[in-house]
Every structure is written in C-alpha cells, then in structure tokens.
Fold:
Amino acid sequence: MPTDPDILRQAMRFWTTGVTIVTSSHNGVQHGMTVSSFTSLSLNPAQILVALAQSSRTHQLILRSRTFGVTILSDDQKDLSDRFAGRIADELDRMADIETFTLATGVPFLRGGLAYLDCRVVTTLGSGTHTVFVGEVLSAKGSPAPELEPLLYYDREYRLLSK
Structure:
C-alpha cells in the first residue's frame, strides 16, 4: 500500500536542503519558483537535475523553452525564497523589480546568489505529480562575494550554517 502523502511530508521535514530558485523564459515570458529538489548529477558531462510540479508555470516554460537556470540562494535571500515559493500568486510577475542578469541561454538569474547554473534540458522523466528535468550545464558562475553563506531549509524553517 502506498505511503500517505501527509506521512511522507512529515518525514521529509527532517531532510536539510539548500534553497534554489529555478527560472525559465520563453517568447518574452519569464517565471521562476523556489525549488529544493535539486542536485548535481554528473561532472562529465556537466549535468544537474531539478524536480518541478507539473502544475507549475515554471514547469510549462521549461517544457517550451528547453532551458532553465538555477540560482543557489544565500542566507540573506529569504524574502526571495518566500516570494518565489508562492507568496505572490503564480499568475503575477514574480520577477518584477528584481535585478537579474543572463548567461548563455538568456534565462534570468537573480543577483546576490551563491552560484548560478545555466542549463539546456537533455532528459525529462515524469513521475507522479512532478517532472525531473536533467539539464546540461552550459555555463556556471560563482558569487564574487565568498563571505556569503547558503540559505538552508530544515523542519519548515530557514536555518543558518554553523561552523
């Protein structure tokens, strides 16, 4: 018998993750969402993966454009994480009044992050309510501010990395 979604949600609260914003654009429309289902997949070829809800606007843009960007958030970007996690309705412009830049594919990245990965989709895998997008990393960039710390999420709260 399958596990009850609420029981799984309770268990997954205890998995500590970094926080990213995945963005995409297509035909002049850009959008993004907060994503913790992100990981490095391969160094050669350079690949990462993200898992997005099939019902999300960002998912649809990635399907159309076949490109996406990942901004790994710093600990002073909690407000951006909240904004892109749905504190602003999905149909509104979450990117309004946010300073962005582009790398290889033209997808927007949010300034102030720890790192940026610009990707072209090479594989998709639908599973349940989500799609796993495997992206070939076409360009990567680290922060010019090495003193920044990562934004972490654990037990439904943002956390700080202790040294």
